[in-house]
Predict the 3D structure of the following.
Amino acid sequence: MSIRKVAVMVDEMYQVIEVWYPYYRLKEAGFDVNLVAAEADKQYHSREGYPCISDRAAGRVDAAEYDCMVVPGGFAPDFMRRSEDVIGFANDMVNAGKVIAAICHGGWLLCSTTAYKGKKATCFMAIKDDIINAGAEYVDAECVVDGNLITSRKPDDLPAFCSAILCALRELE
């Protein structure tokens, strides 16, 4: 297997388990995982204050370098959408047909892209209307896979979410 690269998106008020569970699960599976944010080498904090330091700035990465983008929830996606560079990187990933995975409120970032157009998806119930308005057919399930789009509702869905991501990345081999 050639090394595959995954971008895990981060920003302030991220949901701890939705960042670190996929991050370490993908690393253990042999993937090169970067924490990508609006700024590189910046410390971002979870709602509980748990820090993470971004590896790469969204404005300085190329979608061609990555096979997958993981968008965790918490309130971070609201902050992510305030950065033109983050939205630009997300759009580049979507337009390049890369594996796009969002859990919980992570779907908010994807509402600023065309990722949901004509796709089935799920999310945390509070943003259901947002993803529908962005073009998705909402499905209430622990994990919904529609082509290259992988979505889940909440932290309890992480095992199914990460398994679907790993399956999609293995299919690229």
Summary: The mean pLDDT is 96.
